[in-house]
Design brief:
The complex is a heterodimer.
Chain A: E1 2-11, E2 14-24, E3 29-33, H1 40-48, E4 55-60, E5 63-64, H2 70-76, E6 78-81, H3 93-100, H4 107-120, H5 122-126, H6 137-149, E7 155-159, H7 167-184, E8 187-192, H8 195-201, E9 204-209, E10 212-218, H9 219-224, H10 226-233
Chain B: H1 2-30, H2 37-54, H3 59-86, H4 98-118, E1 133-135, E2 138-140, H5 142-164, H6 166-176, H7 178-183, H8 188-210, H9 220-235, H10 240-260, H11 269-280
Classes of the chains: A alpha/beta, B mainly alpha.
Amino acid sequence: MLALKGVEAGYGKLKILRGIDMTVPDGAIIALLGGNGTGKSTLLKAISGLLPVWSGEILFDGEPIHNKRPHEIVRAGLVQVTQGKDSYPGMTVEENLMLGAFSRSDRAGVRADLEKVYGFFPILKERRKQLSGLLSGGQVQMLVVGRGLMAKPKMIMLDEPSAALAPKVVLDIFKQINRISRDLGMTILVVEQNVRMALLLASYGYVIHDGKIHLEGDAKDMIDDDAVRLAYLGGTVAEVESPALHR
Amino acid sequence: MLYDFLIVGLSIGILYGLVALGISLIYSGLDIVHFAHGEIFMFGAFFGLVLYDEAGFNYPITLFVAMILAGIMGVIIERVFYRRLTSQGGGYTVAGMGMIICGFGMAIILQNIAFLIWGANGRPMHVNFGMPVELGTITLPQSYVWILVVSVALMAVLHLFLKHTKLGLAIRAVAANKDIAYLMGVNVPLMISLIFGVACALAAAGGVLIAPINYVQVEMGYLMLIKAFAAAVVGGFGSLPGAILGGLMVGVFETLGAAYISGSHKDIYAFLLLIFVLMVRPTGLLGVAAKVKA
């Protein structure tokens, strides 16, 4: 569904991504792991069109999207779910959700999807008239996931859904993400620092380190491998050399 | 007498509010302070003059067409000139003085264009509204009734548009956070043009409304900008209800000051109010913690 070939991007003159190759197959949940400052967010921005891609190409559904603008990419069916802190705190829960459906014009379909989102996250329906700034951290995370679904995407990219949440809440959120993948057949790229949770959810994982894909492999193999944890914790490249996983 | 002054102050104030509303709308949407907004107001007044006195349209149609023309003019100015500056630095915001100086430059250019077309002499717009309205002890010329009614109607329409339409929702999203709005599938540059167009149309409405009671002249934009700016700051910069409240306060304050203290110092009172409000409440009356922007 999504394929990246040698993607390079950065800010100003500073190159952050130094040739990323990655594939997200139809219907799969793929994890992208990495610590702070490794290029995770930059990669998401490059895929979503918020940052220009310097070289390489990004294909979505076989179509190149690296020259498109963000709203065109949303229309193509690829939606980035922002972090919870990036809801619109001054708007109500329902306004946030309806904003997610901005690119659509089928009113009936939007209504139906709103109910579907409320089905996944009943608490949002209860609080739909409240300002989203008043929601708890977990509820806001549900809101941004729901808002992403309102665009009726073919694929969503989750930006650290576990950020700043209590472990029990994280478990809840990940269960719902799993359900969304199963019920809607949604293709999902989950970008995480919480390595263990992400690998439990995903079928395949990539570890990004210093702007490059450093490791990749089946989630089951990766979960037991210390290399991942080390890479994530900021261990040096030499420490985490692992022939079994290294590409 | 007090009631007469009050209602005149409110009418003038709501015009300040109308222009201030545009300034606040542009500030919250584009994060820039538009210093050429007074000139858009002036162009609006001249559009009104041409449409009414020369082309012979009636007053409501004049108002409507002048607003459309100024809106288109605003979109063109934003697309052709400001967009080059605002799109630098990857975002839609320009750090530093660039945008401010560009705004002032645009103001001077527009003034001179108006001077070339219409000359330096002021002229009134000859609208015959008929007999003044009697409200109890107050005798109110109909031009003031038009100002009050049209301004309130425009504000109400803007409110409904922003709160209850899909496009309004998208505009609020763009004002709050452009990147997130983009990720929601909102065409952000298009919304920015729309915001600019609406803000300029509001200023033009102010111009057409004031034309029957004031001389229409090339320099009229400058004082209006400063008053509207004061109104926007008094109400809390970037706050839309604040802009209206600030406008009304500035209008009433200066009218009462001119009536009871000294008429020749009329233009000082707005700034006395501004200084006083900023001393007591630095964010303005309805302002929230300021966005840090150039």
